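the two lines:
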Amino acid sequence: MEFPIAGVTVDPIALVIIGFLVGILGGFFGVGGGFIAGPFMFWIGVPMNFVVGTDLAHMTGKSIVAFKRHRALGHVDIKLGVVMSLGTFAGVEWGARVVESLEARQSADSVIGIVYVIILLLVGGFTAYESIRSLRMIQKEKMDVKDVLGFQGVTRRVHSIKIPPMISFPASGIESISLWSILGVGLLSGFLAGMLGVGGGIVRMPMLVYLLGVPTHVAVGTDLFGIIFSAGFGTLTHAIKGNVDIIMALMMQTGAVIGAQIGAVSTQYFTGPRIRLFFSVLPFLGALLVLIRLLGGGAGPL
Amino acid sequence: MEKKAKAPVRELIRNFIIELIVYGGLLVVYFFVVLRYLGEPLARLFGDNLMVYAFGGLGLIVAQAVFLEFVTSILFDFLGLHRLAK
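prediction for all of em together
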């Protein structure tokens, strides 16, 4: 089928299937899934300049659907999402400026690619190690809990920061935490998102769990809430530059909506550590896709 | 996966398959409607005014998300998937 805006012929069923698969990931893990959808879109013939913008557009709609489903399940902390978004926006801008300075030195692609691979391997490795440890703890101590953390040292350290103002997030079970800790986590995840050119869910979800101590299910829903704004903002900026094919995005969204619902509802049937264990595969997959690109075997976006 | 959840999961998967079939039928109709009425005006807008295209496009994405969420929620209720929610 011909898409007049992007000026290419692409199979619409392939777009729906990509949307569906990434929708499941989004609903289940609270990630935008751009690092997976991007290479697939490029592979089926979407021009590179339309890949990122169009993916962000469909991500906005998908996140709205998954967010609504998670909210109905009580898995969203809107207050936390709003406060963290303030730090995220500043971080995205910071990251984008770093990219600009790297581009001026003509080393952006290799530096960003290597940093991306290292970060994804660290996130994936740590999440896998911690979730396996948590599952063993639950088994060994016969705990009947929905969520448990196998590695709480970092969380305790973040909570021990007492720089005012202190705020509480009852929906996440956080009695008191420094506002600066939340903004800091938002800034750091935004910086990585801005620098790596991704939505940021792949680093923000583990940060919510391990740094702030947010229960996994709430982290997934809250992360989706943040993605609505970051992806929506990204859609506008890319569309103004002429890099979004809305028809393609609308088609991808039809698949993503049903996938996101399936993903969101499925989270109820898994404990927090098990969701994190499944999640740990994603960063490894993302790192592999970037490595293939760096080694010249593909040309997908970061 | 937790042992207790196995029975509802089986029902969940069955109902999701039914939902996919019903939703797939709706999609085919939707494709024809979107392509017929939206494709050309959006392509013209893309060439004429990118600012209006950007905001209009985002509006369409949000509107479609809300509409499809409404449709799938009705399907959820119809198939009893909401009853499986803990």
